[in-house]
Specification:
two-stranded antiparallel ribbon, Lysozyme-like_dom_sf, mainly alpha, signal, globular, 45% helix, 18 helices, 4-stranded antiparallel beta sheet
């Protein structure tokens, strides 16, 4: 689930590889593996102690346990979890070494929203018809929206991760990069044990501590997991009904889903659209977009109403185009990667019956990795905050690109081009004093 509090959200590169192949139906609900033996403690990394006043891992862990007890966790639960609360430098190394990969939206969506995953989503909606109907009635979240996240996050339970959750959480808590966040997540995991939802040795998931078939962080598990099958436990690892109800609860109440409203629809944009308005921060009534020449892909007119919407161009004006509604904010909150969130919204629309998106009329040019990094460096020199200079087109980089496109009189569709890079290179060269060699 939603690793919305930090950018790694389910390490997309790993999922892209592990979910690339279609899985047979028999693999989608594999029985839980035998409970592992409690791991042995490993030597903590000295570098992590700097943000804990030099405290060793053991002293740090004792303090976390005290905080958990103060938050209401029983000593029984703490004792049950203790053999699993060990440090693993390998987890910290993964966190520090993770790379968000740059990829064209059409490539990513083509794989992750492939027909087999759409069909699996539709099959699961039929298989769990009662739970989906109940969730839609209680929370207002359509089955296709839940099924799309379920498919993307774990292929309906087939790929939930294979690392001990408590070890991952406490290792990241001791590390200084996001210590406070993961201390809170560790305490939440102890609460999950305390209320009887999961045993410590059942808590197996991703390296970042996410659990279950829609990959909930423990804090979200505590706050939004519900018992939908009536067995007295909130079990997001093994119960499809609990997965459905809990995911709907989080989307509705955590991400503020608007009942009865759309989320994402493919559109066709005219060649003379005011590109500076094509941004998630700009909302216009559908009637205004219709007057600007925006239609559905087959040429049908948009409804001439006042429903606010944004035009989303994940690959610029020559790539796919979407009408993003207020509910699309739930997707960007679930995962702030624009490629992931757009793919999730698109997959949900496909599960709900929408046709596949049109292919671009011509290949969309993408700047090579090194040139995109150079563009980010030039944007920083121009005064923009693009976040990390990593050769990946994130939201901050897109906003900076749009601003510079406007400055140079280029179509402001937020897509970096060779022309924009050339303009910025030229501008930088002109600004250098005579005799300076770059």
């Amino acid at each position: 689930m939603p690793l919305n509090c930090f950018g790694s959200r389910l390490a997309i590169a790993t999922i892209a590889v592990s979910l690339a192949l279609a899985l047979p139906a028999s693999a989608q609900f594999a029985p839980p593996s035998p409970r592992p033996v409690a791991p042995k403690a490993t030597v903590p990394s000295p570098r992590a102690a700097s943000c804990h006043n030099g405290a060793s891992f053991d002293r740090f862990l004792a303090d976390v346990k005290q905080q958990a007890a103060a938050a209401g966790v029983s000593q029984r639960a703490i004792a049950e979890a203790s053999p699993y609360l060990v440090y693993d430098q390998g987890i910290v190394n993964r966190d520090r070494g993770q790379r968000v990969f740059g990829q064209l939206f059409t490539e990513f969506a083509g794989r992750m929203a492939a027909p087999y995953r759409m069909q699996n989503g539709q099959q699961h909606i039929k298989q769990y018809a009662a739970a989906f109907a109940r969730a839609e009635k209680e929370y207002g979240v359509p089955p296709a929206v839940i099924a799309a996240f379920w498919g993307l996050e774990s292929d309906f339970g087939a790929n939930m991760g294979n690392l001990p959750t408590l070890k991952s959480l406490v290792s990241l808590a001791y590390d200084c990069r996001r210590s406070e966040m993961f201390v809170n997540e560790t305490i939440a995991a102890l609460k999950i044990i305390d209320r009887g939802d999961l045993h410590p040795d059942e808590m197996i998931g991703s390296w970042a501590g996410e659990l279950g078939q829609t990959q909930f962080l423990p804090v979200h598990y505590v706050n939004y997991a519900v018992d939908y099958d009536g067995d007295g436990r909130r079990d997001l690892l093994h119960s499809g009904a609990d997965v459905i109800g809990s995911t709907a609860n989080y989307i509705a109440n955590g991400l503020k889903w608007r009942r009865g409203e759309p989320w994402l629809e493919e559109i066709k944009v005219p060649p003379n659209l005011p590109w500076e308005k094509t941004d998630l921060t700009v909302r216009e009534p559908r009637s205004t977009w219709a007057q600007s020449g925006v239609t559905y892909p087959d040429g049908r007119p948009l409804p001439s109403d006042n429903l606010p919407a944004s035009v989303l161009l994940p690959m610029g004006r020559t790539g796919p185009a979407f009408m993003a509604y207020a509910n699309f904010a739930a997707y960007t909150e679930w995962n702030n990667s624009l490629i992931y969130s757009t793919t999730a919204g698109y997959l949900a629309s496909r599960i709900a019956g929408a046709p596949p998106m049109r292919k671009p009329a011509a290949p969309v040019a993408q700047l090579p990795f090194n040139e995109l990094k150079q563009l980010q460096q030039l944007l920083v020199q121009a005064g923009f905050n693009v976040g990390k200079i990593d050769g990946v087109l994130g939201q901050q980089s897109r906003a900076a690109v749009k601003a510079m496109q406007i400055k140079y009189g280029l179509p402001a569709d937020s897509w970096p081009t060779a022309e924009l890079l050339a303009r910025m290179r030229g501008s930088t060269a002109q600004a250098q004093p005579a005799g300076v060699v770059r």
